[in-house]
Design a protein that fits this description.
With 240 residues, this protein is of the alpha+beta class. Helix content is 25%, strand content 30%.
Length: 240
């Protein structure tokens, strides 16, 4: 398999081939697989590293590049003194629990997921795209922010492979709600999102139950194929 990363590079990032500032080939010269990759069957075919991929009688073409990147995200919110605040974690409401302080709904898990995805794609951070000085984001459902981040990744031909989260919280107990949160977030990013709960063992502000923190790690991928029937040499398609 030829590994050539032809997407535009955020400053400081190297292409998979080690070339800084590689020229981006015309998008019309190839078929982007980003959306097609949402099909598990397409993923399996690509994972097989076959030079030719045929699915359901459709000749997709020759796989000519595939890239993976990882990102990490962190977020922390303290509990609010406002009794009207609702606790939202992973897109799920926890009625009866004290809410977290924040400009949006303060969904610390969804924010960490978003941060990890933006980091993986080299697209900055949550605060840059959704500043807490902007009234548009006051009280916003953070799942909507996550939707926008996934759209930003797709626009750069990135799709999510998976995201794994570690939540540090003394309360509430997450185990009974983990599956539901995972389902909500997985549906929004189009890939498995896993959540693990941890306590801070009484250490520091988190251990004194003053807030909740979350770490997230994301893997994203992109693949390019030479259109079926193309006679262009591989070097022309990959820009090498
Ligand atoms: Zn946050």
């Amino acid at each position: 398999m030829i590994l050539v990363d032809s997407r535009p590079k955020p400053s400081g990032l190297m292409s998979a081939g080690g070339q800084r500032g590689a020229v981006r080939p015309k998008r019309s010269a190839r078929t982007r697989l980003a959306l097609a990759l949402h099909s598990p069957r397409t993923r399996l075919a690509l994972a097989a590293d076959s030079p030719r991929t045929r699915l359901d009688g459709v000749q997709w073409g020759r796989l000519c590049s595939m890239s993976l990147r990882i990102g990490n995200g962190f977020d922390v919110h303290k509990f609010s003194e406002d009794p009207e605040r609702v606790l939202v974690l992973g897109g799920l409401r926890f009625d009866g629990e004290p809410g977290l302080h924040g400009h949006s709904d303060a969904d610390v898990i969804t924010h960490a997921v978003g941060e990890s995805l933006l980091g993986a794609a080299g697209l900055g951070d949550l605060g840059t795209h959704f500043p807490d000085t902007d009234e548009r984001w006051r009280g916003v459902n953070s799942l909507e922010l996550l939707d926008e981040i996934v759209r930003m990744l797709l626009a750069e031909d990135w799709i999510v492979v998976n995201v794994d989260c570690s939540v540090i919280a003394e309360r509430p107990k997450l185990a009974a709600h983990r599956e539901q949160m995972q389902q909500i977030l997985s549906a929004r990013v189009g890939a498995p999102v896993t959540i693990k709960g941890r306590r801070a063992e009484g250490i520091g502000g988190l251990g004194r139950s003053e807030g909740i923190a979350c770490f997230a790690s994301a893997l994203i991928e992109s693949a390019l194929i030479e259109p079926a029937g193309s006679t262009a040499p591989i070097s022309q398609v990959t820009g090498t």
